[in-house]
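From the methods appendix. Each design record in this collection lists the tokenized structure first, followed by the designed amino acid sequence. Records were kept in a plain field format so they could be parsed without special tools. The example shown here is representative of the layout used throughout.

RECORD:
FOLD TOKENS (214 positions):
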């Protein structure tokens, strides 16, 4: 992997960076005076990744921006017993957490300058049961296995494809009454996780394409 350190001339695009870890990473990169553009469903040029009919248009817009690095943070889902939530909410979770990332990966040949693509997984949801977050956990587990499979297919590919999997964070995705908040030191501040993310994406260690941070 050549020159992983971010150059000020590079263009970085963050998807799903209106809050939580994405917002913290955007702020950290901006403090380094790097060229950062952020897109989400609440941004000025909105991209709602749950709207499948718009996906080809989103890809066209991103291709025209010609990014060097692309970081995807969007995800989420209904919190509570799976069978008590509406199907439309589970479908929203699967589209945003897994299906749009899968579509993006299928279109990656259209990006001429992209050298690094990083998705955010979950140290908990992608590997272990995550009660009250079943559809979110399903999406993260699927994302992890998709990326690991693509790594196995394309060991010599020029694209630096990575998965960053943090543990529980103090964001709106974790309800105020959720059990992890009652455990000491289990829930981390997004700013500290963002620091680890920014350091890791600039690492040249080929063995660390999946980084788990608990």
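DESIGN:
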């Amino acid at each position: 992997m050549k020159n992983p350190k971010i150059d000020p001339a590079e263009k970085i695009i963050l998807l799903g960076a209106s809050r939580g870890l994405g917002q913290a990473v955007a702020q950290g990169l901006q403090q380094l005076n790097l060229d950062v553009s952020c897109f989400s469903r609440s941004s000025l040029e909105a991209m709602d990744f749950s709207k499948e009919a718009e996906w080809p248009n989103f890809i066209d817009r991103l291709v025209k921006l010609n990014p060097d690095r692309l970081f995807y943070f969007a995800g989420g889902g209904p919190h509570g017993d799976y069978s008590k939530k509406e199907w439309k909410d589970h479908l929203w979770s699967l589209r945003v957490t897994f299906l749009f990332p899968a579509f993006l990966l299928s279109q990656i040949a259209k990006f001429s300058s992209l050298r690094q693509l990083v998705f955010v997984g979950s140290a908990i949801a992608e590997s272990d049961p995550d009660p009250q977050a079943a559809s979110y956990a399903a999406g993260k587990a699927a994302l992890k296995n998709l990326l690991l499979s693509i790594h196995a297919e394309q060991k010599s590919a020029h694209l630096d494809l990575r998965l960053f999997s943090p543990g529980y964070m103090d964001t709106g995705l974790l309800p105020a009454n959720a059990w992890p908040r009652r455990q000491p030191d289990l829930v981390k501040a997004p700013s500290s996780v963002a620091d680890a993310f920014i350091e890791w994406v600039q690492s040249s260690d080929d063995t660390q394409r999946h980084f788990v941070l608990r």
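APPENDIX NOTE: The helical segments are 20-31, 55-65, 87-106, 134-153, 190-201.
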